[in-house]
Amino acid sequence: QVQLQESGPGLVKPSGTLSLKCSISGASLGRYYWSWLRQAPGRGLQWIGYLSRHDSTNVDNPLESRASISGDASTNQFSLTLNSLTAADTAVYYCARHADGYNYSPLDVWGQGLLVTVAS
Amino acid sequence: DIQMTQSPSSLSASVGDRVTITCRASQNLIRYLNWYQQKPGKAPKLLIHVTSSLQSGVPSRFSGSGSGTDFTLSISSLQPEDSATYYCQQSYSTPLTFGGGTKVEI
Description:
The complex is a heterodimer of chains A (120) and B (106).
Chain A: E1 3-7, E2 11-12, E3 18-25, E4 33-39, E5 46-51, E6 57-59, E7 67-72, E8 77-82, E9 91-98, E10 107-110, E11 114-118
Parallel strand pairs in A: 2-11
Antiparallel strand pairs in A: 1-3, 3-8, 4-5, 4-9, 5-6, 7-8, 9-10, 9-11
Chain B: E1 4-7, E2 10-12, E3 19-25, E4 33-38, E5 45-49, E6 53-54, E7 62-67, E8 70-75, E9 84-90, E10 97-98, E11 102-105
Parallel strand pairs in B: 2-11
Antiparallel strand pairs in B: 1-3, 3-8, 4-5, 4-9, 5-6, 7-8, 9-10, 9-11
C-alpha cells in the first residue's frame, strides 16, 4: 500500500522560506511523477508543480520564481521549497502521486496534508 | 491555462436521489478529466479518472461521462456518506487545474 507523509514547519514568518518534505512508502520515487498542491482555508485546490520520474520538474508559472521541487532517491523523498512567503501562502499543502507514471495520470495517492500558516 | 468551471457550486439532496455535477473546460480535454471527493479535514480522494473509469474501491453508484469540454459526475443513489465537496481536474496539460468544487449536502 502506497503512503505519503508531508513534514515541515506549521508556522513560517512572512518573507521567510518554507521547506516541506514528502516521504514515500510502498513506491519508488523514480517510477512515478509526484506533485505538490495546496488549498488555502475554505478555498479550492491549486497545483504547485511536479517532479517527474526523469528527475525534471514543472512548476506553475505564477510560482515559478519562488518555488522549487527536488527529489532524493536515497531517502525516497521529494521536497518543496517556497520562498518570499506572504499570508497568501497560508494553506494546507499536499503531496500526491500521479498514477501509472505519466504526468497526465490522475492523482491516485495523497498525503494527509500539512497546514502551513504564514504569520509573524 | 485551461479553466475549469463546475456547477452547481452547492446542492442539497435527499438519500436515494440521483445527483449530477457538471464540469466545463475552456479547451478540449479529449477525455483527460478526473473527479475527486474531499471530506472536511481530509485529503481529496480519486473517484473517477479519464472521464469514466471508476477508481478501485469506489462504489458503483458513482459514474462519469463526457468528452471534449463537457463532463458530468453522477451519483445514482445518494448515500449519507456522500456528503462532501467534489472537484473535477484536467490532466490534459500543465498547469493542472481544478474546478471550483461542488459541495453536496444531504
